[in-house]
Automatic annotation (TrEMBL):
One of its GO terms (biological process) is iron-sulfur cluster assembly. It comes from Devosia sediminis. The keyword Signal does not apply. NCBIfam families: ygfZ_signature (TIGR03317). The keyword Transit peptide applies. This is Folate-binding protein YgfZ. Keywords: Transit peptide. Pfam families: Beta-barrel_CAF17_C (PF25455). Residues 198-264 form the CAF17 C-terminal domain.
Amino acid sequence: MATVLRADRVVFRFSGPDAHRLLNDVITGIIPSGPNETASLWALLSPQGKILAEGLSGFADDALWLDVHQSVADDFFKRMRMYRLRAKVEIDDLRDTHRVGFSTEASGIAHKDRLGPVDLGYRIIAPVEATADWSSDETPYHLARIAQGVLHLGNDFPANDTFAHDIGMDQLEGIDFAKGCYVGQEVVSRMKHRGTARRRPVIVSGIEAPAGSAVVANGREAGTIGQVAEGNAVAILRLDRISDPAAVTVDGKPVQLDLPAWATYRFGEAVTEDAE
């Protein structure tokens, strides 16, 4: 298939002898340490554990390539330069020279999208001049990721509002639980070991309402839907408020709820204590 342009993504290239250490010490994911065809899911968190940026990291041409949503690109660049301190790292903002795409076939700087149980084809990065024949219709990509229960900051939820567990990063290998400290690690670790994650990704279909509409169960709001593609979306929902998945509405109309194939959680689950 033709490569689909993901017009709302911005690319940053991290190079230099300390690039891996910097990223490993700051963001959540398993950072590639050398050539690997698979990209790694990651997030930059606030000290309170909320997601400030998220995307994929892949290694190519002696550098690590990370993409983020355009709405947080400036903040991400500023924060990473601050965390760099005296480390020997070059951080290049490539929004004027490179583009991000999605394809089922590898070409150019290509990485399998992503570690974990989800297969979304390839993340493609290419110079602007090489993207003239890319498709501008992002619908195929969003249909693919929604069907897998994958959420994106900027498309489905805002920055500094959502925990990593809320979007299933703990189950999608977006968190390296074996490495040392990174920003927000204490909150992530506490949610894992205490089982306090009460909001989780749920696939919603049959939608006749815009993104941001409330999902209502038993007369109570359980969460809101993200970007809608052909009547489908992913919502971050309070599982404990959904005792009957067949009796849920969006904008007063019934919808269908399905858990992602990779989910280990279930509807109706309660937690021992509330997440912060």
